[in-house]
Structures are given as C-alpha cells and as structure tokens.
Amino acid sequence: MSGRTARRRVLKITLPGDGQPGAAASRADFRADFLAAEEPLGIRVNGAALTMTMRTPGDDVELAAGFLVGEAVIRTPADLAEIRLCDGTSCGHGDHDGMGNIADVTLAAGVTVAAGARRSFLTTSACGVCGKASIADICVLPAAALADDLASFAPAVLACLPGRLREAQRVFSRTGGLHAAGLFTSGGDLIAIREDVGRHNAVDKVVGWALLNGRLPLAGCVLLVSGRASFELVQKAVLAGIPLLAAVSAPSSLAVDLATEAGLTLVGFLRGPSMNVYTAAHRVPA
Questions:
Q1: What are phi and psi of 181, to 5 degrees?
Q2: Stretch 21-32: mean pLDDT, rounded?
Q3: pTM
Q4: Of 27, 216, 223, 261, which one's alpha carbon is 20 to 30 angstroms from that of 230?
Q5: Active site positions, annotated
Q6: Before 217, cis peptide (omega within 30)?
C-alpha cells in the first residue's frame, strides 16, 4: 500500500519585492514537494463489487466500515463478520480490474445490501454520491430523527474547534492538500481525526473508527469538517447519531433541508468568533 504523501520535483518561482512588472528578476529553482496521495480503493461486499472510491491511502478498514454505515447497510459491529484488505487477487475473487487496493467485506448472516446502495461507476474524491442510480437512492435516512435533543454546545467551545482541528492535521501540514474530519466532545476535546483528499472519505473514516470501537451512536458529539457541508455529509452525521455537524464553509440548500428534517444542528461558516446556525438552534444557546 502506498503512503499518505507522494514526493514530486517542482519548479519553485519566487517574485522579488511586491511582484510588480519591471522589478528585479525572479528567482527559480527546483525543489522537492510533498503532495497528498490519491489512489483508488475498491469496496467489495460478500464477493460483489459495491463501489470504487478515490481516497488518500490509510485507515482503509475504517473507510469501508464508515461507508457502509453511511449507506445504511450496517449499524453495529455485529453487522460485520470481517473486513480485510487485499490487492484484488489474494481475496480469491476474479472481478477486480487491478486498480488500487480492495477492502473485502463479509457481512454477518442476515445483513444484506439494498440494490440502490451499489455504485455504477467510480466515486471521485470530490463526490460522495457519485454512481447512484436514482434520486430515490440518494437518501437512505431512517424515518426517525435524531433522539439526542438534550445535547448542548456552547458557542465559545465551537469557536475553538477549527483551530484545534488544524493543529491536529499532520499530513495537511506537509502537503496543504487534505480535508479533515474531527470528532469532538461537547466540551471541545478531540476524540478522533482523519484526513483524506475527499471530505466524505474523511467523515467515513471517523465514523468507521467509531463503529469498530463500539462508539456508535455518537450522542453528544460534534463532527467538524474542514470544507463545506453537503447533503451527503449531513446524512452520514445523522446515520452515525451525531447531533451537531459544523463546517468552516457554507452548507448547501439540500444539506439544510435534510438537517431540518432529521433534527440535526447544522453550523456553517465556523470561523473565528462567529458562526451561522442553520437548523436546530436549541442546541447552541447564545
């Protein structure tokens, strides 16, 4: 398996002074640069291909487990018999095209995959719902909304979380090219952080970690993402039992609609001393 970063040779150009035309000559030299790695991972369930996603290598078992939680395929560790990583041949199946690695999942007896959960083509690092066959397949939320209505999150605590997330992003500090998802307590303590080129992958890795460690549902926790809050991230948070999803950037209209329906508190533009609370504001007492 490849590492989380890749080393490449780049031409570094530095303009003198204020960089305006007519200034002294610029400086150019070759140097080594570290990039965030991006490679395909296939997820196969009970011997059948479920999806191929582009991700940053690492925490792949957690990624597969979290993806299945986000597709409403599994809810507890008891729903899983085994997850193992292989190269597409060592798992004994002949339906792999040889790209990347494979997370080979065996479900517990009686656990099945709905037809709508299977993706018809590659899921890119920028898309969490690519490959869905119909609009009806996109939403997989249960009828019941979040039950964790007693959770409360102080605005002053929320305001500190982006800085704590950034400080914990070890791979981002080397590459500048990774998203992060961080799980925090209501008091602002960091529980888990995962990085990936895809926002949805980073969330899947956090949720998968929680599943494999018997932590679901994640009542009383905050999930913070380093980018925007999209529909699929709201859905993943709700299915993991997380009462508050926060993003440093904007949410989409569909994300707000789904959060309203599910009873999730959705916070956007969490930057410095201000934030926007779009839904379920009773959990963020001003």
A1: -125, 130
A2: 75
A3: 0.84
A4: 216
A5: 127
A6: yes
